Amino acid sequence: GAGVSQSPSNKVTEKGKDVELRCDPISGHTALYWYRQSLGQGLEFLIYFQGNSAPDKSGLPSDRFSAERTGGSVSTLTIQRTQQEDSAVYLCASSAFPLQVADTQYFGPGTRLTVL
Amino acid sequence: DAKTTQPNSMESNEEEPVHLPCNHSTISGTDYIHWYRQLPSQGPEYVIHGLTSNVNNRMASLAIAEDRKSSTLILHRATLRDAAVYYCILKTQGGSEKLVFGKGTKLTVNP
Q1: Which of A12, A82, B88, B102 could form a disulfide with B22 if both were Cys (CB 3.0 to 4.6 A apart)?
Q2: CA gap B22, B107 in Å, rounded
Q3: Residue B23, min C-alpha distance to chain A (Å)
Q4: Are A7 and A111 contacting, i.e. CB atoms less than 8 angstroms apart?
């Protein structure tokens, strides 16, 4: 079946502009995660959605970052007033049984964001 | 979450077995050991997981020490496609659902 898809695959923007990154999870997966991977920081958690529960936003680095998940499916990560340090690969993952310790996360290919 | 320690890099030759170690000396009884790998320019992918017993699947085997303070991911016959960064991650029963990635081990496979 279809895996996790993300768009765009690449995004180049100017400092100060807003960007939106999209994630389509695997159909039926109740959990959706955003991570980012930058050269200096490795892979770090940003935010987690599970069903109708309040999202876990504990990994968002600043209030310029926000995310929403509409209808329990597609998610959009928004970065306002982008800074050069926001340049990274933004990865989305989804899973079917997030509350089970043996749960597997399935990752998308990522969106490479470059802030000039 | 308990921490893991992995070598920064390892090298192997094609068609030879590869043993990727992971130390997790502070592991608790409810921590599961998960392995993911990240091929170049791709998102991470699940490899295998286990609790106490050794595990096998089509991708790899996971050998867990009796005291659970270390584990080894075994690729029985490395191929060029196995060149990736391998992450050893602990997940706690009832704990956070997020994955906490360390720096992993970069595996180079020589033809």
Answers
A1: B88
A2: 14
A3: 19
A4: yes
For A68-92, write each residue's pLDDT tens digit.
998 879 999 999 999 999 999 999 9
* DSSP-derived 3-state class of residue B81: helix
Instruction: Say if B92 is an interface residue toward chain A (CB within 8 Å).
Output: yes
Per DSSP, chain A holds a count of helices (H) and strands (E) of: 0, 10
Residue of A nearest to B97 (CA): A98
Query: What is the rounded distance in angstroms from the CA atom of residue B36 to the CA atom of residue B51?
Result: 15
- How far is it, in rounded angstroms, from Cα A33 to Cα A54? 13
Whether A44 has its CB under 8 Å from any CB of chain B: the answer is yes
Gap between the Cα atoms of A92 and A28, Å rounded: 15
Which residue shows structure tokens 């005291």? B67
Per-residue pLDDT of chain B (111 residues; tens, 9 = 90+): 568 999 999 999 999 999 999 999 999 988 999 999 999 989 999 999 999 999 999 999 999 999 999 999 999 999 999 999 999 999 987 777 888 899 999 999 999
